[in-house]
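User: Please fill in residues for this 332-position structure.
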C-alpha cells in the first residue's frame, strides 16, 4: 500500500537534515567512484543515486514493497529527483540567491539544544556541522526556487467561474444517509458457534422490532456500539464511512425498514435507514474562496512541474550507468 509522497522540496532534498542521519547528498567522486550520470558536466555517483532511491522507497511505500507495474515509474521519478537537485541548485546560483543564514543558525541552535547531553554530538559537532550546514544551505536555496516557481497571480472572477464549472465534482456535497444501528459485538477470531449465536440473537431482536418494540429502546438495551446511548442513531454518514458489507446493500434499503442481520467486522448488526440526502452541487457564491484556493494549488503544481521539466529539457544530461530497477523484496 502506498504512503503519501513527500513534498517537492523534501523529495529533492531526499531527507530532512539532522545530525545523526546518513549523508544523502551526492558524494564527491573519487578516482574509483562509479559515476551514474553527469548533469551539465557535474558528476553524480552511483552511490548517490542508490541512496536517493532507497530514501524514495522508504518514504513512498510500506516495507519498500513496490507494485510491479509501478517500478519503472519509481525509477524515472528518482532519476528526476537526482537531476532536479543539481539543476535547481545551478539555477539558484544563476539567480544569485543566498541561503537564509538566520534560519540555518536557528536550526543548528536547535540541534545544540536537542543533543546537549549526547557525548557523540559534543565530540563530533564541528565535523558534523560541515555537512549539516551545507545541506541546510542547499535546502534553503531549493525552497526559495520552488516558492518563486510556484508563484500564481490571483485569478479573475471569470477564471474562477470557469474553473468551478469544469470541476463541479470538487464542489459537490456527496450523498449522505442517516441510519440507526444495533451491534452485537463479536471478536473476529471468535469460533463459528459464537458468530452463529450472535446471528440468532440479532434475528430475535429483529422479530421484536417487527412486533412493535421501538428500535431505539432495543439499541440502548443490546447494542455494543457507542451510539447505543443515542438509541443507535449513527447521524449522517457519507459513502466510505459505512462498512463495505453494508454499503453494498444500501441502494436497496427502504426508508424506515430494518435490515436482516448483517455480518460486519465488529460483529453482527441491524440497520435502519432513516433519511437519504442526494448529492448537491454547492453554488459558486458559497465556494468562491475554496475555488480560488484549489485553482491556485492546481496552477502552482503545474508551474512547478513545468519549471523542473524545462530545466531538464535545456540541460545536458548523460546517463553513464543505466540503473537496474530493484525487484520487490519478499522480506517484511
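Assistant: Residues filled in for all 332 positions:
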Amino acid at each position: 500500500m502506498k504512503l503519501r509522497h513527500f513534498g517537492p522540496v523534501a523529495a529533492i532534498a531526499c531527507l530532512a537534515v539532522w545530525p545523526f542521519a546518513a549523508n544523502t547528498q551526492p558524494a564527491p567522486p573519487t578516482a574509483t567512484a562509479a559515476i551514474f550520470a553527469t548533469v551539465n558536466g557535474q558528476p553524480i555517483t552511483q552511490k548517490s543515486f542508490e541512496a536517493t532511491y532507497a530514501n524514495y522507497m522508504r518514504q513512498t511505500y510500506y516495507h519498500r514493497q513496490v507494485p510491479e507495474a509501478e517500478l519503472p515509474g519509481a525509477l524515472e521519478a528518482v532519476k528526476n529527483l537526482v537531476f532536479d537537485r543539481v539543476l535547481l541548485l545551478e539555477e539558484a546560483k544563476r539567480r544569485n540567491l543566498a541561503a537564509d543564514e538566520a534560519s540555518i543558525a536557528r536550526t543548528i541552535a536547535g540541534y545544540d539544544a536537542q543533543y546537549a547531553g549526547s557525548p557523540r554530538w559534543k565530540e563530533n559537532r564541528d565535523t558534523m556541522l560541515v555537512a549539516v550546514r551545507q545541506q541546510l544551505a542547499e535546502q534553503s536555496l531549493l525552497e526559495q526556487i520552488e516558492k518563486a516557481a510556484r508563484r500564481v497571480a490571483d485569478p479573475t472572477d471569470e477564471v474562477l467561474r470557469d474553473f468551478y464549472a469544469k470541476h463541479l465534482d470538487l464542489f459537490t456535497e456527496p450523498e449522505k444517509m442517516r441510519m440507526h444501528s444495533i451491534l452485537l459485538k463479536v471478536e473476529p477470531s471468535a469460533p463459528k458457534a459464537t458468530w452463529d449465536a450472535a446471528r440468532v440473537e440479532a434475528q430475535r431482536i429483529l422479530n421484536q422490532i417487527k412486533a412493535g418494540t421501538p428500535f431505539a429502546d432495543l439499541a440502548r438495551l443490546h447494542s455494543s456500539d457507542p451510539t447505543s446511548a443515542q438509541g443507535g442513531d449513527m447521524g449522517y454518514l457519507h459513502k466510505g464511512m459505512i462498512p463495505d458489507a453494508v454499503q453494498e446493500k444500501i441502494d436497496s434499503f427502504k426508508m424506515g425498514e430494518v435490515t436482516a442481520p448483517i455480518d460486519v467486522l465488529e460483529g453482527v448488526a441491524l440497520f435502519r435507514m432513516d433519511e437519504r440526502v442526494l448529492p448537491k452541487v454547492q453554488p459558486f457564491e458559497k465556494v468562491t474562496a475554496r475555488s480560488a484556493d484549489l485553482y491556485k494549488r492546481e496552477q502552482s503544481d503545474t508551474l512547478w512541474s513545468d519549471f523542473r521539466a524545462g530545466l531538464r529539457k535545456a540541460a545536458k544530461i548523460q546517463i553513464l550507468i543505466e540503473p537496474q530497477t530493484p525487484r520487490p523484496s519478499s522480506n517484511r
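For context: The chain has two domains: 8-153+296-319, 175-278.
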